[in-house]
Amino acid sequence: MSVTPARTPTVAVVGAGSVGATTAYAALVRGSARRVALYDIDRAKVEAEVADLSHGLSFVPRGEIVGGDDIEVCRGASVVVVTAGGKQRPGQSRMELAESTVGLVRTLLPQLLEVAPDAVYLMVTNPVDVVTQAALTVSGLPPARVIGSGTVLDSARLRHEIAARVGVAEQSVHASIVGEHGDSEFPLWSAASIGGVPLLEWERATGRLGPTEREEIAEQVVTAAYRIISGKGATNYAVGLAATRIIEAVLRDEHRVLPVSTWLADYHGISDVCLSVPTLVGADGAGQRLGLPFTDDERARLRASADSIRATARRVGL
Question: How much is the pTM?
């Protein structure tokens, strides 16, 4: 049975850095939640972000922004979005961030559970698949209520690259990146479509998006974050929007299909690891994983991605 969302639900965003502040901003601008709470241990930083955001409330759908360095600000939240963690440096892989970030999760999650015991937890901090597993382990929550943002952003990047090459709107492209949110992720080409036309049939009909182009697109998606971090120091706008899309699916009980990272149990033979596959997301969090028909190569690549995540999880004691 679905949980009925609160009349005035609160989204708590943990971490007032570039990703956390942008997520709070996107949630207000999109009207994702009536009340947004921003928490950070840096009091001056979080108070400044809340002041700046509050000054724009007359330009957005009705909403409220509160915040502070006391975790009580998160009390009663329906969704808790965790963005706090180490900043990924140029050239540094997401998995290299794992040890320090998992340590933070072990400290932070028990405190959050004290004030928001009934929330759905959305982990955004990288490496998000390992962080999601850590949050699940530390919290003891049902797996459905601990979600990683996973490859929702990567899939948006994929749709952007495809749309740009064939001259259609991103919204007309249906395609997903699956696996790790990181170097072993890959596009699920066999299930991709453009305006209802299977992508592989689009290739046969137009001579476009052949194997070489698809390989180029996949490379662009996998390396996108590294290029952005090299140029501006962080990714924040698109990931903030991706997080709010997941928030909306929960608060509005949309049963939206999103490639979020969740704990798998015998998905194409893969168990005991968090990674991204198309999943129904609603008020209870992560629901059914869609059993799409993978090709043999896609299944092998998903297993390899799972192995990569497991190796890092073991290194940090999970």
Answer: 0.93
